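ENTRY TYPE: paired fold submission
RECORD: A
CONTENT: sequence, then C-alpha cells
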Amino acid sequence: MKLKNWQLALALGLGAAAVALKLSSCVSIPKGTKAVKPFYKDKYLGKWYEIARLDFKYEKNLNNVTATYTLRGDGLIRVDNRGYDFVNNKWKQSVGKAKFVGDPNTGRLQVSFFGPFYAGYNVIAIDDNYKYALIAGNNLNYLWILSREKTIPEAIKSDYLEKAKSIGYDVSKLVWDQHDR
C-alpha cells in the first residue's frame, strides 16, 4: 500500500508530536542525589515560605514567595505559587499540579504549570517535623530552600547549603527571599 504525501506528513507529524510529548514529561534528579524516603505527602501539604532559590525567569524580581500544596479531587496535588514582583509592585500567582514520579513514598514529584510539560521537584532533605525542606529540580540550575516560617534556623540553613554544595550546586548564586509583606 502506497501512502499519499498528506498521509505520510500526518503520520510523521503525529510521531514527532508523540516523541515531543514524551520528552516533555521526562523529569530527572541531579546525579548523585536521592529523594527523601519515606516521604509523607500529607505532612508536606500546606503553606511553605521560600527562603532561597536559584533564580530563573518565572521567579525573577520576586520576593515574599510562598508555595501552598493542597490535595485535588483527582488525587494530584494543587501547587499555588505566589510572590511579590518588587519591580512592577504587584503580586504574581501561578497555579499548577504535581504528581509522584513512581513510588508515592519517595519525595520525587513532577510539577506542571503549562499543560503537558513537567519539571522535576525532588525533596532531597526534610526535617522530621516537616518544617524545613531542600528541593532540587531536574538539574543543578534549580534549587529551593523552604520553611513553614518566614525564617530558617542557622543550623538547618548551614546543613542544607553544605548538602547542596556536595551535590554540585553553586550556592553563591542563591537569591535570598525577603518576607516583608
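RECORD: B
CONTENT: sequence, then C-alpha cells
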Amino acid sequence: MDFSVRIPFVELLGFELHRFEGGEAELRFDPGPDHMNSFDVVHGGASMTLLDVVMAHAARSTEPDMGAVTIEMKTSFMRAAKGPLRATGRTLHRTATMVFTEGHIFDAADKLCAHATGTFKLMPRLATGASSAQPLNRIKTD
C-alpha cells in the first residue's frame, strides 16, 4: 500500500505501509546494515522513528486529508530489535485537534521489542510543490 503523502526520511529508511484505516496503522521495516548500532541491532533512533510514523498514521487514519504533528512521545525498549520488524499503532482517544495513540514494535518471532505512546495535533495540509501558490509547507503552530 502506498503512503498518502511523500515523506523523504521514511523513504530513506525503507518503511512499508500495510494498514491505514479505522484508527489503526501497520508498518513493516527490514533494517539494513546502516540502521544498526554498535551492538549490531536496530538503532533506537530508527525504532523511535518507526513508532512515530506508525502512531502518526494511526492518528490520521480516520481523517487522511489532515496532517499529524508530533507533540510528545514516550518510548520504552523491551528487547533488542533484530531482523524484519512489524510496527502497529492505534488511536486511544481523540479530541477536536489532538489524538492520543500507542504503538508497538515486534520482531520476526513476534516478540515485543518496544512500546510507545504519543500525542499528535491534527493540522490541515497546506499546498506544496511547483504548481502551488505556497512553495513551502509552512504550518501555523500557534
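NOTES ON RECORD B: The chain has a mean pLDDT of 92. The helical segments are 8-13, 44-60.
STATUS: closed
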